[in-house]
Structure formats: C-alpha cells, structure tokens
Specification:
By secondary structure, this protein is an alpha/beta fold. The protein has two domains: 7-130 and 288-303, Aspartate/ornithine carbamoyltransferase (Rossmann fold); 132-286, Aspartate/ornithine carbamoyltransferase (Rossmann fold), CATH 3.40.50.1370. The protein has helices at residues 12-30, 52-63, 74-77, 86-93, 109-116, 132-145, 164-173, 193-201, 212-218, 235-241, 249-254, 283-303; strands spanning 41-46, 67-71, 99-104, 121-126, 153-157, 180-184, 205-208, 221-224, 260-262. A five-stranded parallel sheet has the order 7-6-5-8-9, with helices on both faces. Strands 2-1-3-4 form a four-stranded parallel sheet, with helices on both faces. Helix 2 (52-63) packs across helix 12, helix 6 crosses helix 7 (164-173) and helix 6 (132-145) crosses helix 12. The longest helix has 21 residues, at 283-303. The two termini are 14 Å apart. The structure holds N-carbamoyl-L-aspartate.
Length: 305
C-alpha cells in the first residue's frame, strides 16, 4: 500500500516519476482526457482550513473519473467533537473509500492514520510538520518554470519554523545536486535544526541571508511563505515577526530575469499584489499545477503506473 506521509520517503527517481506523470496529466487535461479511476472514491478529511489543497485534490479525483466524499472543518463537524480518536475515524472511513487525503493539526497525525488504515493515506499537511504533496507540486513548478531541478539557488523566505511546505520542499530538493538554500527568516522562525541537518547530510549548502534584497539578487527561486499565525504561542509573538519580509517592486528589481517567485498561498501581505502581473510571479500558476500533480499522486497510489 502506497501511503504518502513524508517527503523524506521519496528518492530522486520517484520524484522524477511523479513529475513525468504530472506532465502527462497536464497534457491529458488539455486534451480533455484523463479518466481511469471510475468507481474509485476518495475521502478528503480536513481537520484544518484549506482551499487549494482540498479543492485541487477533489478536482484531480473528479478529472480522473473518480468520486469524492469530503469533510472540511472535521475538527468541529466530525465525530472528533464527540471524542473519537483519529485512529478510529480512519478505521471507519477506510472501509468506505479507496484512498484517504488527510489534513490534521497535529505533527505525526498522517503517520498515525497510515498505521491503522487499510487504504492509502495521502498527507495534506500535519500541523507544523510536513506537506509532501505541496512539495511535489512545488518541484513540478520549478521543473516547468525554471527548467531544471539541480544547480539551483533557492531563497526560503518567512516562516521556516512552522511552514510545513518548506520542510517538505527542503527534503525533496535535498535529493538533487548543486542545491544552495538561502534562509531569509526572522530569528524566531528559523529552519528547524533536523530539517537543516537533513539538507546538510545530503550535500546541500544552507546559508543564512537576512537581507531579502541580497537573497533576491542571487536566487533562481524565491520561495515566500506566510507567517503561520495559528501556530504562534501568542498574538504578540506573531505580530513581532509579521511584515518583516515583503516582496514588492524593490525586491523584484533585484531579481534575475529568469528567476521566479513562488508561494504555497494563501498570502497575508508578504507579496504585494502590484507585482502579480510580472511574469516572474509564478504563485498562481503554481497553485494550478496542483491539479495535474495530485492526479499523478492519486493515480500512482490507486493503480500504479
Ligand atoms: C499551506 C499549508 O496549508 O501549509 N497552504 C497550502 O497548502 N497551499 C501554506 C500556508 O497555509 O501558509
């Protein structure tokens, strides 16, 4: 059974396979094809808010001819309110469907779900832990837009501590040669030590670059993130780091011609809308790549190849 719980479980060959498949799915979508999962059902169990992840997973499943059952706000509206454990919920739902997409507020929740599930579990984010399918679509974005996955300078900007998409992205990039990471983060939200260690152990260069303009001048990819307000101990702690690094026209001016700006979205002020029309602003295209990549991921766990 093929669970997708952590980006650490993926080796280079698998990552490249997903990217090839996503490219094929993108072609299939353009040709208005892309079936194959008729009679399959996906459950989207979301215990935390989501727009892109849930809707792109559901779109992917529907485009593949499958069907979807979904519970958003499961923290408030599922039997979790009555005290049911995640494990029990998964045991039950696994008897209804062929694949479970799970977003949960606790680190390690996806692994716990996978340990009791009789169908594949795809993590759609576990607290401040990881977000592996986002990282796959992020790599797909880089492959599509920059044209390579090695010899890249990637500026990671913003909340590197709680930003789960960053953690999974670093794990995937670590599989490729010549990666240089510039960490442009407030001192209270650095890249977690274990994530940094993983990258270093895989030969990645990890540097701190506190000046966003300097980072922008060197980067092939700027990966901006939202300060994860909901994960801070107090509002005051959040307010202290919010608005520290904002991508605006001045930052854009410093960027290379062929570099791109990415963001998993939603943004909350850290990229000014005035730069959206610049061709280097890749974040909305990035959000759209979620559909072909999630088609590739769902197909892979349900029918292989
Ligand atoms: C991210 C998440 O939920 O981790 N959003 C997403 O899935 N595209 C990023 C965020 O919420 O800031």
């Amino acid at each position: 059974m093929k669970h997708l719980i952590s980006a650490k479980q993926l080796q280079k060959a698998e990552i490249l396979h997903y990217i090839d498949e996503a490219r094929e799915m993108e072609g299939a979508l353009q040709r208005r094809e892309g079936r194959g999962l008729e009679r399959k059902i996906m459950a989207a169990l979301f215990f935390e808010p989501s727009t892109r992840t849930r809707l792109s997973f559901e779109t992917a499943m529907l485009r593949l001819g499958g069907q979807v059952i979904s519970t958003e706000s499961a923290r408030e509206f599922s039997s979790a309110v009555k005290g049911e454990t995640l494990e029990d919920t998964i045991r039950v739902v696994a008897g209804y469907v062929d694949v479970i997409v799970l977003r949960h507020h606790e680190i390690g929740a996806a692994a716990r779900a996978a340990s009791v599930s009789t169908v594949p579990v795809l993590s759609a984010g576990d607290g401040a832990g990881e977000h592996p399918t986002q990282a796959l679509l992020d790599l797909y974005t880089i492959a599509r837009e920059v044209g390579r996955l090695d010899d890249l300078t990637v500026a990671l900007v913003g909340d590197l501590l709680y930003g789960r998409t960053v953690h999974s992205l670093v794990y995937l990039l670590s599989q490729f040669p010549g990666i240089r990471l510039l960490c442009t983060a407030p001192s209270s939200t650095p890249l977690p030590e274990d994530v940094r260690e993983f990258a270093l152990a895989h030969g990645v260069s990890v540097e701190f670059e506190g000046n966003l303009q300097h980072a922008a001048a060197q980067a092939d990819v700027i990966y901006q993130t939202r300060i994860q307000k909901e994960r801070f101990a107090s509002l005051a702690d959040y307010e202290a780091v919010k608005g520290h690094y904002v991508i605006d026209e001045e930052v854009l001016k410093r960027m290379q011609k062929r570099a791109i700006i990415m963001h998993p979205l939603p943004r909350a002020g850290e990229i000014v809308p005035a730069i959206d029309s610049d061709p280097r602003a890749a974040y909305f295209r990035q959000s759209h790549y979620g559909v072909p990549m999630r088609m590739a991921i769902v197909r892979d766990c349900l029918i292989g190849e």
